[in-house]
Design a protein that fits this description.
heterodimer; A: alpha/beta; Transcription Regulator spoIIAA; three-stranded parallel beta sheet; two-stranded parallel ribbon; 4 helices; B: alpha+beta; Four Helix Bundle (Hemerythrin (Met), subunit A); Alpha-Beta Plaits; 5 domains; five-stranded mixed beta sheet
């Protein structure tokens, strides 16, 4: 079973708490998660660590996390911060 | 520290840097600039650029970057600091200042000005690289030669609150990226990995730790300054590549086991670290300690430098001063009670208390005192700008910059002083040709001086210009109908005319002064601070404006005197001496004059002056007050000694009363009025002068007396 969630344009500290809540609930009732990041136009470290947290949680439950269609913002942010763990979750067919 | 506070401290810091920059630029004109000063200029722009980058202020980053480049060339010696470049840098300074002011709700600077400055910078740098080419020929070195690129290892342990404080670690990395090349970067979130504890994840807490390999033309201090904003609870381990081993020892032993493991994995992946054969964490920890201490020490000492000053809201300080005022009164009251009861131990304890209160009082007041140099320093710029606008060559000499006075007064002094300085440059100092003709040095000189004198602060603005022309002043005054007839006026009286509203002797109106708006405003402003203005002038030699101001507006050391039943406070600082009125002097007193050891002084009978009822006491006393050079005797009934006085302002109803400057409450609960010594002595002098006129010319006192009465 796989669940796809589309995230909003802004992924920053201000959304971090609600994002955390949203993903926590999602991870409770779905096995594998796919996050659609195509709409993300702003991202910061707070959001990045929520994703890292989700990844750690999913892995802890032997489930997967995929980041689908990451926008340019997401890609460059991951590259800037050297977020290798997230880089590995990016969908391979989106790699450029 | 939230975002707004961080922003405020950024603005504050930038303002200080700009001030320093301006000071250096103005200094440099007269002198050869030192490498140290160049470094400071560069640092100012660099730090502003860096901090602005953290706040995402692209405009400022862009502009300061260009200025930084220009300064870099200057630092390398491919450009020389001449008047043109100095002017350009001052314009840059103004522009950045305007940009910062715009953040604080000011008007944003025009794009045209920015474009014009940038064009000038580009032209200047082009010019610079050309001259360098010609001048040094084959000795030409690449610009980065002084600061060669070097490799650095960074382990950035951002504090847990960095996100809540409105700082995004990514901003630091972005800025780091502008300084050089990030060769490898990896982040880990060690705190997250614990299984089944998802509820303990706090999305607003920072878990990120970043490892970086960096290459760029920077030094350790520059790198440390990148993270200065986050240094509060973070730990940033920065080492040159050569010190790989010690860096890893420090970096990999920091934090808990999970963090050590995550960080080790990164360095291992980069091939820079091999897990030791046995007991990895235990062996490292002991040796590491001293090195780790030195690394974390640097940000700490930086911080202690910052906190040498604490910014306090002015209103809070005022409240404190008010409370201390009440404390002084209450302390005096209890001391009085103790004395009435004659209880020795109680008396002793109240006098200890009084000593402490006195210390608190002076310390509290000291907090409000700032050196006037802060206010003087801006005149370097004023003189520079005004003299350039007028094409005059003028040197400014500042002394007594560490003279302290009340902060609120310093603020209010800036405008009047600016007026006086501009006046001196525009009217006082002649242009170069005239000076040469008069046999004076071509460069005009302007002095700003401050010093303490008998309880007041004296500020002098002096020039070595042409001096005031009494003849012209009189003529103008007649034209404007300020004086009538051919009556002879004393020198001081003539000078006083220039403070009349709308009075100007300048033949031509420049856009700086000469419109006749100014000196009257200066006088009003100073009078509002309970100060006076004196003028001294020598034709052809120069003019001195002397402002005399009280030290503070809050508390004074007073001297209690009584006239009949009424108690008055005379500020202790201006009392020269007290004498008992000798028998047989009553007649002299009535005449308003007395002889003090051969010196004739005006004598003001306080009872008569204030219109108090009652008969004079059998024995009367004279308090001799001194303001500047003038001494005046005040005739009172009794002397009661020193008393610390908290000045309570008079209600608006009484504020026009010139002889009373305030009121205070005595320990007994009675109200005492504080005498305004300056106004009293001025009045006494004008009375004396009127009497002198009357006896000398033999006609009844004219307008002067009535003028004197209203002062």
């Amino acid at each position: 079973m796989e669940k796809c969630i589309t995230l909003g344009a802004e992924l920053t500290l201000y959304q971090a708490a609600s994002l955390h809540q949203q993903l926590l609930e999602a991870s409770r009732d779905a096995a594998d998660l796919v996050l659609d990041l195509s709409r993300v136009s702003e991202m910061d470290c707070a959001a990045a660590q929520v994703l890292l947290w989700l990844l750690a949680r999913q892995q802890g439950q032997q489930r997967t996390l995929r980041l689908s269609q990451p926008s340019q913002t997401v890609r460059s942010f991951i590259r800037l911060m050297g977020l290798g763990a997230l880089q590995a979750c990016l969908e391979s067919n989106d790699e450029s | 520290m939230n975002l707004e506070q961080a922003r405020q401290s950024f603005l504050q810091e930038s303002a200080e840097l700009l001030e320093e920059m301006e000071g250096i630029l103005l200094d440099a004109e007269a002198d050869n600039i030192t490498a140290e000063q160049l470094g400071a200029l560069f640092r100012a722009m660099h730090t502003i650029k860096g901090s602005a980058g953290l706040f995402g202020l692209e405009d400022i980053v862009h502009f300061t970057h260009q200025v930084e480049d220009l300064l870099d060339q200057l630092r390398e010696g491919s450009l020389q600091l001449d008047a043109e470049l100095d002017g350009l840098l001052l314009r840059c300074h103004d522009h950045v200042k305007a940009q910062l002011a715009a953040l604080d709700g000011g008007i944003p600077p025009s794009g045209e000005e920015q474009a014009s400055i940038l064009a000038d910078i580009a032209a200047m740098m082009q010019h610079g690289s050309d001259t360098l080419l010609y001048a040094s020929g084959e000795h030409l070195e690449p610009p980065a030669a002084q600061q060669p690129s070097s490799d650095w290892l960074l382990s950035l342990r951002f504090g847990p609150d960095v996100l809540r404080n409105g700082m995004d670690p990514a901003s630091f990395i972005r800025y780091l990226d502008t300084l050089g090349e990030i060769q490898a970067i990896a982040s880990c979130c060690p705190g997250l990995a614990t299984e089944g504890e998802e509820d303990r994840f706090d999305p607003e807490r920072n878990y990120l730790r970043v490892e970086v390999q960096f290459r760029g033309p920077v030094d350790a201090a520059q790198l440390e300054s990148v993270f200065a904003f986050a240094s509060e609870d973070g730990q940033f381990i920065i080492s040159p590549r050569q010190q790989l081993d010690s860096h890893l020892q420090q970096a990999l032993s920091a934090g808990d086991a999970a963090e050590q493991q995550a960080a080790s994995a990164i360095w291992q992946q980069w091939g820079l670290w091999q897990p030791p054969a046995a007991s990895p964490s235990a062996s490292g920890a002991d040796e590491v300690q001293p090195a780790a201490v030195t690394a974390t020490d640097t940000p700490k000492t930086g911080k202690s430098n910052e906190s040498r000053f604490i910014k306090v809201e002015a209103a809070k300080l005022d409240q404190l001063i008010n409370l201390v005022g009440e404390l002084v009164i209450a302390g005096a009251a209890s001391h009085l009670l103790a004395r009435q009861h004659g209880n020795a131990p109680l008396l002793e304890s109240t006098s200890v208390l009084a000593g402490l209160i006195e210390q608190i009082r002076s310390q509290t007041l000291g907090m409000r005192m700032v050196p006037i140099g802060e206010c003087f320093s801006r005149f370097g710029r004023v003189v520079h700008d005004v003299s350039q606008a007028l094409g005059k060559d003028i040197r400014l000499f500042v002394s007594g910059a560490d003279t302290e006075l009340d902060k609120s007064m310093v603020d209010k002094l800036t405008d009047p002083l600016t007026h006086l300085v501009r006046n001196a440059i525009d009217h006082g100092i002649e242009d170069t040709a005239q000076r040469r003709a008069a046999g004076k040095p071509e460069a005009g000189r302007l002095w700003l001086d401050a010093y303490h004198e008998s309880g007041s602060v004296v500020i002098e603005v002096a020039d070595d210009g042409r001096g005031l022309n009494q003849h012209t002043i009189l003529e103008k005054a007649r034209q404007r109908g300020l004086i009538t007839g051919d009556r002879e006026l004393a020198e001081q009286e003539i000078y006083r005319l220039i403070f009349e509203p709308g009075f100007s002797t300048a033949a031509t109106i420049s856009n700086l002064s000469g419109r006749g708006v100014g000196l009257d405003v200066v006088k009003q402003n100073i009078a509002r601070l309970r100060g006076t203005v004196e003028v001294e002038s020598e034709a052809g030699l120069g003019t001195t404006f002397r402002l005399r101001l009280p030290l503070t507006l809050a508390i004074i050391d007073g001297f209690l005197v009584t006239v009949g039943a009424a108690t008055f406070v005379v500020p202790l600082d201006c009392i020269a001496e007290c004498i008992a009125l000798p028998q047989g002097w009553q007649t002299a007193a009535a005449a308003g004059q007395f002889n003090l050891r051969g010196e004739m002084l005006p004598l003001l009978c306080l009872r008569r002056f204030l219109g108090l009822d009652g008969q004079p006491a059998r024995r009367q006393n004279v308090v001799i007050i001194q303001t500047g050079e003038y001494k005046v005797g005040l005739l009172v009934d009794a002397l009661h000694g020193e008393y610390q006085t908290v000045i309570k302002p008079l209600s608006p109803l009484f504020q026009h009363l010139k002889a009373i400057s305030g009121s205070t409450i005595l320990g007994s609960g009675e109200v005492a009025l504080i005498l305004d010594v300056l106004a009293l002595s001025e009045h006494a002098r004008s009375l004396e002068y009127a009497q002198h006129q009357q006896t000398a010319l033999g006609h009844p006192p004219s307008t002067i007396l009535s003028v004197g009465k209203t002062t």
